[in-house]
Every structure is written in structure tokens, then in C-alpha cells.
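for the writeup, i need someone to sanity check this before i put it in the appendix. the sequnce is what the collaborator sent (i think, or maybe the updated version? ugh). structure was predicted straight from it, no edits. if anything looks off just tell me and ill rerun, i have time this weekend
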Amino acid sequence: MIQNEYVFILYTEKPLVLHPFLLDRYKTASGQVFLGRCISGFNPVLAETIRKDLYLAAEHRLQKSIVDKAYALRLVATAIVFLVVYLFFSIVVRDPIPFIDEFLLGSIAAAVVYIRMGQKAKKSPRYLESIMDSRRIIDSIYFTESPVLDLFEAWVKEFKSLGVSGFYKPLDTAAAFSASERQEAEALCEFLSQRFKKRSIIADIYKATMDGRPLSAMLNQAWKQLGSVEASLAFAYLRLLSFIIEKDAVR
């Protein structure tokens, strides 16, 4: 089954690229179609630079999902090698400085085995095929302007201009997403959720919003912790979540 994935490009001056290789759930590019979405006025010349960055990101993600998958096996193998080498030089080979040489030689042997096993995994047919699949899909990405990103970008700029007070501005209830735009919006929220998952203050603000609790102190704290640029992005993300939830409630 073909699954659509999205690559989003925000900002015109300094692009912020959000892509599937950033997601913990991502494993392989097989059976997927990547749809490129950008804001209005995006410079297409930047697309080639972005593709090169995506190559590197894809390789890093595939290394984590394929090469590092055998981490436990590599760890056991290196531990066994270390123990064998250590015991061999401790019992069979006598030296004037006990422990130090055995420990050093065992560590070197274990490191060599660990590295060689990782290199072997990178030469496996599965890994190489996954790399080629990801590059083929990245090369096929065509970027089109997205109303969802334009709306999101407008919110980011609004927060940059108004600060935390922009959070209290009512949502435009007349606006609505089509089915495809909603899919984009949900994918964008997934990327941003990954981006802010270690920022507990953002989750706290979201919960307080859902519960109808006061937000002022938390908003000011987030603005101070994240800085104006990142906080504006986080607040726009929370507004997008609220927008989607509100539209669901209307249905």
C-alpha cells in the first residue's frame, strides 16, 4: 500500500525543512510517495540544496533503523571478544604490568569488532537498496505551494509581532481545510510534535488550553525558554492543533 509522506519548507529567508527522516517512526522509503509542500514565494533554486540535505538525513535515519538495529548483537559480540582477549593475555601471556595491558588490548579488539560489524551492515543489500530507494524518492519530490503552510506562516509572523498576546486572538472560524489540506495539516503537526517533544512546557500549555486553565504564566515561560523565533513556531503549532480539533468538533 502506497503511503504519502510530506516534506515541508517553511520561511523564505532561512528555510526550515520538516521531513519524514526526522520522525522516530520512520523506517524505510519503500512503498511511499513524498509530496513536497512550500510557502508562497519559495525560491525553487533552494530545492537542490534541500535535496542534498535530505540525502544525508535519509542516510542517517536508515543507519539508525537498519545498522543500529543490530546494536545488541554487536554489543554482545564485542563483550565476548573483550573477555576472550582479556583472559588470554591475563592467563597465557604474562607481563610485568598486570591488568593494564590486558584491559587495553581487550578494549582495542572489542572496538575493532564493533566497527567492522557496523561497516558490514552498511554494505548489506538491504541497507544499500534502502539508500537507493530513498534517493530515488527524494529526486522525485516536486514542491508545490500550500495554503496550509501559508496560513501557518501567517500565524508564526503574527506571534513574532504580537508576542504571547497573539495566543489570545480568536481563530478564524470561517476558514476550513479540504480533505487533502487536512492531511497536510496533520502531517505538519506530527513533525512539530517531534520537534517540541522534549519541551514539556509546550505540552503543559496544550493541556491547559484543553482544560480551560490560565495560560499567562506558562506562555511567558515558554517565550523566555525558547526565544521569540522558536516560541512563535511552537505557538503556531498549538494554534494549528486547536484549529483541527475545533473543526472536528463542528462536524
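Residues 10 and 16 are 5 Å apart (CA to CA). Strands lie at 3-10, 16-18, 32-38, 143-145.
thx in advance!!
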